[in-house]
Amino acid sequence: MSHTTVKQKRTALKVARSSKTLNVSSGVFRVNQSMTKTINPSFSGKSFSSGSDSKVLDKSLAQTPKHTVQVFDEHGQDITPHPLYNPDPGVLQPKQGKIFPAHEMSWTTMTDFPSVAFQTTNASFTGPFTRSFFGSASASRTSQTAESVTDETKDFIAKPDLSSSLTDVQTRREKVKEQVREDIMDRVVDCYLTETETIWLLDIPAVSVSVDSEDAEAVKERNNAYTELCKNRQGNDKYVERSMQTFNDAPKTKEVQSDSITMVDKAVMSTTWDMYDSFCNKSDVSENTVVSAEGNKATVPDSSSMSHLLNPSGTDQSMSVFSTTSTVSGSSTHLEKMTVLPVEEEPDLELILQSDKFKQDLAMMERVVLANIFQPKLAAYRQLPVIEDPDCVQTQMEEESWTEQTKNSLSPFLEHLWAFKCELTMGRNVSSMTWNKKNPDLLAVGYGQHEFKDQKPGLVCCWSLKNPTWPDRIFHCESGVTALDFSSCNANQLAVGMYDGTIAIYNVQTAEQTPITDSSDCANMHTCPVWQLRWVDHDTGLAGEEKGEMLISVSGDGRISKWIHYKGLECVDLMKLKSPNVTINRQQWNPKILSLAPGLCFDFHPNDSKIYLAGTEEGQIHKCSYSYNEQFLETYEAHTGPVYKVAWSPFCPDVFLSCSSDWTIYLWRQDLPKPVLGFSSGQKVVFDIMWSPHCATIFGVVREGNVEIWDLRVSSLDPTIVSLTSTGVNPTVLLFTPETDCVLVGDSEGHVTVYKLKNLPAGGSTQVETLEDVIWSTLSSQHTLGKTDGSA
Amino acid sequence: MLIVLQLYFSFHSNDRQTEEAPVLSDMAEVEDTLKRIQGINGVIGTIVVNAEGIPIKTTLDNSTTVQYAGLLHQLTMKARSTVRDIDPQNDLTFLRIRSKKHEIMVSTDKEYLLIVIQNPAE
C-alpha cells in the first residue's frame, strides 16, 4: 500500500526552493538510474518503519522544499528523486526537538542496524550539525541500501538518499499518519537514550576559577592531574572491567514451634458513670483492692484466699453486702469475682436478705403492690378523681354493686372504702383510735377490752393508709389498751393508757417493743383503767408553770392527773373527781371519806386550754379549771348513766356534746345547766361521739349496732345517715379524718373500717351560724314551752 | 372489791415480758414480709436476684424464674446506665413495667433486684 503511495507522491512533488542541506545534497545529486530504482524497493521496505514515526513529525515539516535539479531518464520521464527530507525551519521545530530525536533514534533502532554503521555515517557528516540527528538517522537507514551499492558512491548517494528518503518520509507521514496512529497506540515503544555530540546525558557545568585567585594553583594542579589520569586511563590496569560472582548459599528451612496464641476479645464500655465511679472509688478502695486482689490473684480456688477475701469485706462494711471491691470497675477484678462467686453463694443470700436496705425495699414493694389494688379506694379517700384502670377487667359483680349504689346517689350514705384488719387484730375490740399529728396518713389503733372480763394483753397498731393489710408498727402491751394519743410536739411519741392503769410512751419511729417510759414505777400511778389520755399544749403559762406539752389522763380511780416526763413519769393530780353523791343520799356521808367517782372522759376547751370538762361514771359532767384543783367550776347533770364521751364543738366555743350509756346524747351550752338538745334513736348504748372537723352541724355517733351521722341542718330528731353493722359486731370507736370527708369506725371484731361520707349537704362555711340558730331556736321553743327538754 | 382485784393484777403486770422481738431474727421478719407480699391478691410471683443476675429466692418455677431474672437484670442494667449517664450521682431505685396483662415491679439496688409480678385486674 505504502508502496503505491510512495510512487504517487513522488511524481506529484516538485522540487521547491532548496535549503542548505539540500544544496549540499543536491550537489552530489548524480542520480544513477539503477540507484534510484534500487532505492525504491529498499526504501519501500523501510516505509513501514518510517511511517510508524510519521505521526511524531511535525506538520510543518511536511512542507518540503523542492529541489532545483531535475533528473530525467532515457525516456524523458521525470525521475527526479525527491528529497527524503524537506525540513521546514519552523518555529515548532525546537519544540519537537526533544521528542523527535528520541523517536528518530528509535527510528534507527527499529531497523537492525549495527552500531558500527551508525558510527561510520556519523563520522561522514560533519557539516550539518543541526541536522546531525537526521543525518545519522538517514545515514543509518541508507546504510542498508548502501550495502547494495558500490562503495564509491556510498557517501554521495547517502545524501541524496537522505533527502529523498526524507522527503518521502515526509509525505508519507502525512498520509499514513492517521492510519498508523491507531496501530501504534497499543504498541510498546522502547526508548533508548544515547548521547550525541550535542546532547549529553550528564551535564555538569564547569566551574571556572580565576587565574588570580588563591586556589588557582591548586586547581591547575588538579586539572593537570586529571588530564594525566585521562591519558593514562586507556589500558590502565586500574580501570579494568571485571566481574565477580558471589556464592549463593544453599537455603535451608528451619521450623520453630510455639504455643498457640489464644486471642481473647475484650471490650470495655466507657460510660459517664463508670468513670465517675472509678474516680470516686479510687482513693477509697485502693487498700481494699490491693488486699482482695492479692487474695484473688494468688490462688483463686484456694480456700485460704477465700477467707482472706471475706475478712476485709466483712470488717470494712457491716451493712452492705459486698465490699467495695465488687464495685471497682476494673475488668480484671470482675473476672476474678466471677470465679469466686460459687463459693460465696450461701452467705451472699443471707447477707442480702438481712440487709436493711432490703427490708426497706420490701416494705416499699409491698406498698406499691397494694397501691395497685387499693388505688381507686385511696383516690376516693383523698378526694382525688378515680381513674379506672384501662387494662383492668371489672367483674360483673362489682359492676352491679356499683350501679346499685349509684342509683341511690341522691340520699346521703356511707361508702365503704376499705378496712384495716389483719390476723393479729382478729377478735380484738378496738378501744381507741387517733391520728398522728404530723403525718395524716398514720393511724394508731389501740385494742383492748372495755369489760372487766375477757381481759387479754393489749395491742397497739400503727397503720398507714398506704398499707391496709398490715400495720407498720405493732406494739404488744401487757394489758388491754384503753386510751391513745399522739403528741403534737414530738410527733413520734405515742402515749398509751392501759386497763391496769399504766401509761406508757412509745416511740413509733422504731419498731422497738419497749416504751420510752412507763408509769409503772410511779408511786402515784393510776390504779384503775386509764380511760382517756390527752397531750395538751399550754401556750400560756403562769409564772412558775412549765410551758409546752403535758400528758393529762383520766382514770377510773377518779383522778385527773398531769404527767411529767423527767426521768420517769411522774404525775401531779389536777383534779380529783369527787363524787357528789354525798348530797344525794339521805344519810350524810362522812365528808372526810372522799369517794371519787370514776372519770371516764375529759375534753379540754379548744380555745382556752385551762378549762376542761370531765365526765364521770355517775353521769355528771364537771367543768374544771386547770389551775384550781379543789372544786369544780360547774357541774352538768342530765345523764343517768356513765358519760362515755364529752366533746367540745370545734367551731362553737360554748357548745359541747356528751354521750352516755343511757342511750342519749345531749347537746349543752356552757352557760346552761341543762342540755339544749337531746338526741336519741333507739335504745342502744352510745359508745362514742365526735364532732365533724369540717362542719359545725355534723357529728357522728357510734351506738351498739349502728353508726349514725347526725346533721343538725337536716334534722335534730333523726340521724341523717344510719349505717347498720353486721349482727354481733358493735362499732366502738368513731374517728373523723381531719382532712378528708371520711370517717373511721372501729368495732369489736378488730376491724377499722373507712367510710366516705357521700351526699351530705355541702356547705361553704362551717355552718356555725346554723348551729347557733338551731340552738337558739330550740332554746326559744323551750322557753315558750316552759319546760326543758332533754332528759332521757 | 373491784379495786382490790385490780390492784392484784397490777402487781403481777410487771413480771411479764413483752420483749420478744429483739431475739426474733431479721430473717423471719423478712420472710414474713415476703410471704405477705406473695399472699396479696393478684401477685403472681416474687423473685429476688443477686448482683450477677442469678435468682436467689423465688416463688415461681425454675424456667420462668431464670427467664425473668436474666431479662430484667439486663433491662435494669440498661436503665441504671441511662440514669447514671445523665447524672452520675443519681441512681436507679425503682422500675415499673406495665403491660397489658401484668405489671412487673423491680426494686433495684447495687446488690440485688427485687421483682414482683402482679396482675392488677384481680
Q: In brief, what are we looking at here?
A:
Chain A has 792 residues and is an alpha+beta fold.
Question: How do the strands and helices of this protein lay out in sequence?
Answer:
The complex is a heterodimer of chains A (792) and B (122).
Chain A: H1 2-12, H2 20-27, H3 33-52, H4 93-110, H5 115-124, H6 132-147, H7 154-185, H8 216-233, H9 272-298, H10 303-316, H11 331-354, H12 356-381, H13 396-407, E1 413-420, E2 430-435, E3 442-447, E4 459-464, E5 473-476, E6 481-486, E7 493-498, E8 503-507, E9 517-518, E10 530-538, E11 548-555, E12 559-565, E13 569-576, H14 581-584, E14 599-604, E15 611-616, E16 620-625, E17 634-637, E18 643-648, E19 655-660, E20 665-669, E21 677-679, E22 686-691, E23 698-703, E24 706-711, E25 721-724, E26 731-736, E27 742-747, E28 752-758, H15 768-785
Helix pairs in contact in A: 1-7, 2-7, 3-6, 3-7, 4-6, 5-6, 6-7, 9-10, 9-11
Chain B: H1 2-12, H2 26-39, E1 43-50, E2 55-58, H3 62-86, E3 94-98, E4 103-108, E5 112-118
Antiparallel strand pairs in B: 1-2, 1-5, 3-4, 4-5
Rounded to an integer in angstroms, the radius of gyration calculated over CA atoms of chain B is 22 Å
Low-confidence stretches of chain A: 1-67, 91-165, 290-344, 788-792
The secondary-structure class of chain A comes to alpha+beta
- Sheet with most strands: strand arrangement of chain B: 2-1-5-4-3
Count of DSSP-assigned helices of chain B: 3
Approximate strand percentage of chain B: 15-25%
Compute the average pLDDT of chain B.
80
Distance between the termini of chain A: 154 Å
State the oligomer: heterodimer
Shape of chain A: elongated
Shape label of chain B: globular
- Largest sheet: spatial strand order of chain A: 1-28-27-26
Percent of residues in helices of chain A comes to: 25-40%
Main sheet record of chain A: 4 strands, antiparallel
Per DSSP E runs of 2 or more residues, the count of β-strands of chain B stands at 5
How many β-strands of chain A, per DSSP?
A: 28
Considering residues with a beta carbon less than 8 A from a beta carbon on another chain, report the largest interface and each chain's count: A-B, 59 and 54 residues
Number of helices of chain A: 15
Beta-strand content bin of chain A: 15-25%
Pfam family, one (chain A): WD40
WD repeats (chain A): 636-668
GO biological process, one term (chain A): cilium movement
InterPro entries (chain A): Dynein_IC (IPR050687), WD40/YVTN_repeat-like_dom_sf (IPR015943), WD40_repeat_dom_sf (IPR036322), WD40_rpt (IPR001680)
